[in-house]
């Protein structure tokens, strides 16, 4: 079985893709059958992934040599592109994680999307998404990866705009698509440059060639390539300054938010950087860029999350912030810590998104956390699993988030990035605060008499329980005392971080302080008067944060004034210079000349005859007074 | 005192005739007169042709032959020209060239 899975890993993306085709062409009129097809596809994919992952993680040979199956896609002189699947610890972990989380979310969606008119279509889209994401994870070739990358972008667009009767959803879908397209342009340029310089996009070949890049190119070009490639992840993973699409993407159905905008697609950027680590590793400047972008985004998004009111928006900014952590870890050179956080984050963030979906389901899509309260009494399963998610993301041991966040903090400190370390540590405090603010406001305190919540059906709560269990124990694979994770997922050489007790204790204290502050402000203080007073007192800061630093407004201003202004300038140039002077101007000039010449055209034969005569006279005079050369000039050829 | 008539005399006569004809073509207002003046110019050319043939290449009759051609063509041309003038006259009741400016534009 394991051998079969290892050698047929291409089934992993193929099964959901087949489910997509089957739903679109055959089972669409029968919603439940469509849902079962989709679930069957992803669960089948999960089984193959799990077996393959088992095969990879029991055979140390995979650390040295990935298992690649590839076929030639197309071939022309100077350009050969293969497509294939590559199994190594990183991709095995990724397909295992993606297919597991996706399976749970698919099952949850059966309950959440019940009675939706687009039920079948929804499942076809998410199946296509799962297929694309798994293809991205398992690709052996960067071009193949790019195709999958664009496919997940397309699915993201389709699913954000799934409620296409809502204007906000349509706008958000377009925003996501366009923002990612801007970033993908950079990535595409980077890939083209790599193909031109190194003559291949195959991951294994590239890693060998880039290690000796001096034979092919200069350091400057390599830096340029790394920066261009990194632009793609900035967009896809919602890093500053292209993070703007991610919070708006919450207009999509909640399972989509959980699947795409928390657990899988948005970490594709992290995964891509991890996959091309051989490139970034050679370019310390690009690594710094990754680290600074990540560290800054983590803090930046966390500060915004503090003031937001919509439950999914808070989670979205939290996602941006957590991906910032992953980028930070990559930038300081620890792929191990980064992917570890990606692994744990997938569980607890999917858990919290699905929990939020359960809440929205119960409250009929009332999203403002200030209008909730006391929900844990009516929805115990949703509430307590959410609390587990909150503990995990805040970084309370032994929950999953603690181990990974602690490792990121430790490697940041170890690499000597003290400023980034302080930012990351402060972000940890903020994370605990805003997440527990959300939890206290939503699940504890006074019940809002207007709400009539009810616990969600088992098909929705069981995935929550599953994810809660994973959020609890998922981090135990990589504790500092039993570092299985770092033995398998690494770049270069396995790197064991020594248990840094100061960092550990410090991060727990920060998390506890954040939770305590939220507890004081939003639980003990029933009227929330102190929180309101704080917001009043620091009103300008609050306003800036609440309006997300006005980034959207800045972009809008930029587009309306700079871009539209330039467009208007070019429009005027076109109208007055191209059309006015060149096209119509030439025409008018011809007309005017015609008008002028036409005066000489009297229609009187005798005038014409006179002109003939004068012309002949002129020629004769000229011939008489000049030599034969002039004659030959006029008459032509006659000597 | 009787001097022999030389080629120059013929050519002067021819030039005078041509000049008169040209003046008439350019200045006369009557279409018939213009036609007559064209005939004058053609005949000036004929004199030139015959005279030059007689004095320079007496053995050949090229010039004379050309003159006969010109007379023939001139007859045809006058026929066409007169026909046009008659047609115009029927339409416009005028042979004054100043009235005929429809060739413009």
TrEMBL record, chain A:
Recall the GO molecular function terms of this protein's record: NADH dehydrogenase (ubiquinone) activity; NADH dehydrogenase activity
The cellular component terms of Gene Ontology attached to this UniProt record, alphabetical and capped at eight, are: endomembrane system; membrane
Q: What is its main location?
A: membrane
Query: Quick check: keyword Amino-acid biosynthesis in the entry?
Result: no
List, alphabetically, the Pfam families matched. Proton_antipo_M, Proton_antipo_N
Domain of life, per UniProt, equals Bacteria
Q: What sequence ranges are listed for the domain NADH:quinone oxidoreductase/Mrp antiporter transmembrane?
A: 139-431
Please indicate if the UniProt record lists Transmembrane helix as a keyword. Answer: yes
Q: Where are the transmembrane segments?
A: 6-26, 33-57, 90-110, 122-140, 146-164, 185-204, 216-235, 256-274, 286-307, 314-340, 346-363, 384-403, 415-436, 457-481, 501-522, 608-635
Name recorded for this polypeptide: NADH-quinone oxidoreductase subunit L
Can you name the source organism?
Desulfofundulus australicus DSM 11792
Question: Which taxonomic lineage does the organism of this UniProt entry have?
Answer: Bacteria, Bacillati, Bacillota, Clostridia, Eubacteriales
TrEMBL record, chain B:
Query: Cellular component terms, GO, for this chain's entry?
Result: NADH dehydrogenase complex; plasma membrane
Gene Ontology molecular functions = NADH dehydrogenase (quinone) (non-electrogenic) activity; quinone binding
Question: Which Gene3D superfamilies does this UniProt record tie to the protein?
Answer: 1.10.287.3510
Membrane topology type: Multi-pass membrane protein
Task: Keywords in alphabetical order, please.
Answer: Cell membrane, Membrane, NAD, Quinone, Translocase, Transmembrane, Transmembrane helix, Transport
One annotated GO biological process:
ATP synthesis coupled electron transport
- EC top class, as a word: translocase
Compartmental location: Cell membrane; Membrane
Keyword Transmembrane helix assigned to the entry: answer is yes
Q: Which residues cross the membrane?
A: 7-26, 32-53, 65-89
EC number(s) given by UniProt: 7.1.1.-
Catalyzed reactions per annotation = a quinone + NADH + 5 H(+)(in) = a quinol + NAD(+) + 4 H(+)(out)
Question: What NCBIfam families does this protein's entry cite?
Answer: PRK05715.1-2, PRK05715.1-3, PRK05715.1-4, PRK05715.1-5
**Described function:** NDH-1 shuttles electrons from NADH, via FMN and iron-sulfur (Fe-S) centers, to quinones in the respiratory chain. The immediate electron acceptor for the enzyme in this species is believed to be a menaquinone. Couples the redox reaction to proton translocation (for every two electrons transferred, four hydrogen ions are translocated across the cytoplasmic membrane), and thus conserves the redox energy in a proton gradient.
User: What PANTHER family does this protein map onto?
Assistant: NADH-UBIQUINONE OXIDOREDUCTASE CHAIN 4L (PTHR11434:SF16), NADH-UBIQUINONE OXIDOREDUCTASE SUBUNIT ND4L (PTHR11434)
Give the family this protein belongs to, as stated in its UniProt record: Belongs to the complex I subunit 4L family.
Subunit structure as annotated in this protein's UniProt entry: NDH-1 is composed of 14 different subunits. Subunits NuoA, H, J, K, L, M, N constitute the membrane sector of the complex.
Q: What is this protein called?
A: NADH-quinone oxidoreductase subunit K
Question: What is the scientific name of the source organism?
Answer: Desulfofundulus australicus DSM 11792
Its taxonomic placement starts with:
Bacteria, Bacillati, Bacillota, Clostridia, Eubacteriales
């Amino acid at each position: 079985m394991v051998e079969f899975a290892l050698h047929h890993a291409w089934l992993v993306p193929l099964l959901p893709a087949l489910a997509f085709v089957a739903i679109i062409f055959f089972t669409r009129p029968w919603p439940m059958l469509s849902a079962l097809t989709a679930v069957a596809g992803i669960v089948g994919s999960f089984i193959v992934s799990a077996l393959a992952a088992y095969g990879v993680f029991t055979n140390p040979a995979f650390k040295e040599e990935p298992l690649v199956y590839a076929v030639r896609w197309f071939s022309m002189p100077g350009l050969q592109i293969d497509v294939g699947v590559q199994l190594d610890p990183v991709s095995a972990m990724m397909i295992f994680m993606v297919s597991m989380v996706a399976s749970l979310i698919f099952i949850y969606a059966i309950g959440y999307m019940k009675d939706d008119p687009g039920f079948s279509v929804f499942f076809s889209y998410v199946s296509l998404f799962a297929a694309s994401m798994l293809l991205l994870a398992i690709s052996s070739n960067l071009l193949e990866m790019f195709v999958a990358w664009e496919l997940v972008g397309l699915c993201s667009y389709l699913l954000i705009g799934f409620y296409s009767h809502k204007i906000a959803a349509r706008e958000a879908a377009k925003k996501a698509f366009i923002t990612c397209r801007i970033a993908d342009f950079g990535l595409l340029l980077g890939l083209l440059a790599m193909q031109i310089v190194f003559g291949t996009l195959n991951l294994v070949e590239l890693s060998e060639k880039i290690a000796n890049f001096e034979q092919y190119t200069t350091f400057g070009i390599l830096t340029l390539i790394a920066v261009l490639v990194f632009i793609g992840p900035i967009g896809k993973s919602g890093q500053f300054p292209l993070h703007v699409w991610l919070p708006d993407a919450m207009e999509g159905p909640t399972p989509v938010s959980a699947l795409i905008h928390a657990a899988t697609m948005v970490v594709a950027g992290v995964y891509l950087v991890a996959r091309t680590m051989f490139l970034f590793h050679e370019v310390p400047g690009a690594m710094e860029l990754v680290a600074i972008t990540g560290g800054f985004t983590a803090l930046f998004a966390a500060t915004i999350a503090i003031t937001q009111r919509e439950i999914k928006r808070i989670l979205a900014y939290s996602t941006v912030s957590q991906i910032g952590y992953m980028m930070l870890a990559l930038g300081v050179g620890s792929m191990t810590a980064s992917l570890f956080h990606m692994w744990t984050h997938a569980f607890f963030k999917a858990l919290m998104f699905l929990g939020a979906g359960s809440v929205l389901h119960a409250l009929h899509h009332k999203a403002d956390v200030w209008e909730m309260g006391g929900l844990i009494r009516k929805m115990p399963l949703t509430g307590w699993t959410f609390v587990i998610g909150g503990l995990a993301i805040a970084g309370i041991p032994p929950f999953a988030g603690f181990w990974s966040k602690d490792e990121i903090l430790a490697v940041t400190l170890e690499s000597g990035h003290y400023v980034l370390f302080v930012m990351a540590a402060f972000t940890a405090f903020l994370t605990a605060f805003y997440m527990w603010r959300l939890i206290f406001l939503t699940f504890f305190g006074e019940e809002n008499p207007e709400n009539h919540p009810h616990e969600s059906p088992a098909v929705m709560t069981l995935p929550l329980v599953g994810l809660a269990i994973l959020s609890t124990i998922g981090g135990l694979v990589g504790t500092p005392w039993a570092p299985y994770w770092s033995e398998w997922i690494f770049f270069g050489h396995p790197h064991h971080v020594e248990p840094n007790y100061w960092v550990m204790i410090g991060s727990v204290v920060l998390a506890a302080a954040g939770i305590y502050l939220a507890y004081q402000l939003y639980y003990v203080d029933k009227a929330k008067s102190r929180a309101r007073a704080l917001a009043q007192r620091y009103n300008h800061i609050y306003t800036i944060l609440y309006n997300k630093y006005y980034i959207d407004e800045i972009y809008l201003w930029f587009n309306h004034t700079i871009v539209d202004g330039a467009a208007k300038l070019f429009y005027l140039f076109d109208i007055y210079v191209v059309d006015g002077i060149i096209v119509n101007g030439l025409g008018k000039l011809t007309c005017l000349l015609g008008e002028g010449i036409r005066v000489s055209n009297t229609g009187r034969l005798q005038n014409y005859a006179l002109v003939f005569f004068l012309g002949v006279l002129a020629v004769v005079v000229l011939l008489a007074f000049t030599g034969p050369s002039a004659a030959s000039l006029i008459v032509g050829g006659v000597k | 005192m009787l001097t022999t008539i030389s080629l120059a005399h013929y050519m002067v006569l021819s030039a005078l005739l041509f000049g008169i004809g040209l003046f008439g073509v350019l200045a006369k207002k009557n279409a018939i007169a213009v036609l007559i003046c064209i005939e004058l110019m053609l005949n000036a050319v004929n004199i030139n042709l015959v005279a030059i043939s007689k004095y320079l290449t007496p053995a050949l009759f090229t010039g004379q032959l050309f003159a006969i051609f010109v007379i023939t063509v001139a007859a045809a041309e006058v026929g066409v020209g007169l026909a046009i003038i008659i047609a115009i006259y029927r339409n416009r009741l005028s042979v004054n060239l100043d009235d005929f400016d429809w060739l413009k534009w």
